[in-house]
Amino acid sequence: MDINEEQKDKIKTLTLEYINSDDIKKKNKSINELKKYSNNEECKEHMNNYLMHLRMQNEIKYLKRKNFWNNIWIVVITLLSIILLIQAMAMYTFSGFSPFLVTFVLSNLMIYMFARFYPEIKVQFKKFKETCTNLFKKKSK
Questions:
Q1: Record keywords: Transmembrane included (predicted)?
Q2: pTM above threshold 0.70
Q3: Please, which of 39, 68, 105, 115 could form a disulfide with 88 given CB 3.0 to 4.6 Å?
Q4: Which of 28, 34, 30, 33 is nearest to 47 (CA)?
């Protein structure tokens, strides 16, 4: 027996009612309705697919939100490091401040940049290594 659009829509609405409702009576009612549909194998498969789709959407929203705040944090740290470097260089130039401070701030900035971009550099290096290996294999044949 094929599942029709009406049944699919009903499953979606019941699932959304269950997820979004705070009332226990509504949740129980929607669960009881969904149990009726779960006897049919195709309806059960559609329910599982729809639930998986909802979970993936929630995870994507969470990852986007996490990535947004992570990007803001990266920009703030980079700007603060650059401002600190400029301030240390200005203090060294105008007041004869110790060169240790400039070296310290510069090395911290370099370490931060290396740590920040190291995974991307590693991936690019791996791609470069693979292309070179493939090129040499082709030439040797």
A1: yes
A2: no
A3: 105
A4: 34
- Separation between Cα atoms, residue 110 and residue 85, nearest integer Å: 11
Listed by start position, the domains of the chain span: 5-140
Residue 82 DSSP label: H
pLDDT of residue 1: 47
Match 């009881």 to its residue by tokens: 32
C-alpha triplet 62, 8, 59: angle, nearest 5°: 10
**34-38 contacts: CB < 8 A, separation 24 or more?**
37/7, 37/10, 37/11
Which amino acid would we find at residue 139?
A: K
**Rounded distance between C-alpha atoms, residue 85 and residue 53, angstroms:** 48
**For residue range 41-80, what is the model confidence (pLDDT) as tens digits?**
777 777 777 777 677 677 667 767 777 777 787 778 778 8
